[in-house]
User: What shape does this take?
Amino acid sequence: MVNKSLLERTLAENVTWNKARINFLTKFLVAVIQVKTINLAQVSSVMCGRAKQASHYKRIQRFLRFFQLPFAELARFVIKLMGLRPPFVITIDRTDWYLGETPLNVLLLDIAYRGIGFPLLWTILEKKGCSDTNERINLIEEYLRLFGRQSIEFICADREFIGVDWLAFLCRERIRFRLRLKENLLVENSRHTKRVAARNLFRTQQASVAVLLSGSCQVLGQRLFVMVLRRSDGEYVIVVSTQETTLLLADYARRWGVETLFGCLKTRGFCLEAAHVTDAERLRKLMALLAFCWAYLSGQ
Assistant: This one.
């Protein structure tokens, strides 16, 4: 059960919006949690107040179309609301779906905490497929402007988030990371006279036993430390970092919180796909209005 008065009071104390905007947002968030979907027709049907459903629906549309959301202010609010304390474990990942033939693609940065990712910043990619280096760098730079490098413990990212310029940026900015490599990526260490596929460094290792390679490797132009786990199905989980630590794989495992987040935002939670919003800026606003953090606190 969501406490509407508490929610409205909390918003009023933390965002610099007028009373009407806060009142609308409170009603919207409560309705989203109640119907468990972001489908605007269903949300508008249960919004409290004397106005008819059609009026609520039009008000939601006007909000998404005209109101300039202060995303930086909302990011700070999420950290305060959840009681998070730096340094943070940051995850960067991507999720997508289709509305008919239109690809909807979200690149998202979150804070991993207690097995869940709490969304902080995101951008809508108006294309299908992977993000590029500039899109990732822009998202990280936006975070750095708001919270600074010292607030990051390390960044986690999956195999999609790898590349020469991306690694160079992270190393240049002295941002610690735990990144997973594709097992066929060519790397070089002191035991080999030429580059070899990363998995070949560990072929003799026992399955299901994590191994930290002695010394650093040359990976896409950077000297990095490498740790691996060869799973029982033969797949390799290979993680790299600028830091030599036996906790590399355990640290990397914390990125799983973003998968939990995506499940909560999509079919196992608020059904983001049901919004039927394709405009990039409106979808970005709608992401901000999802009641995930407040629903989490209510559940706690």
About this structure: Residues 82-256 form a domain with the Transposase Inhibitor Protein From Tn5; Chain A, domain 1 fold (CATH 3.90.350.10). The radius of gyration is 22 Å.
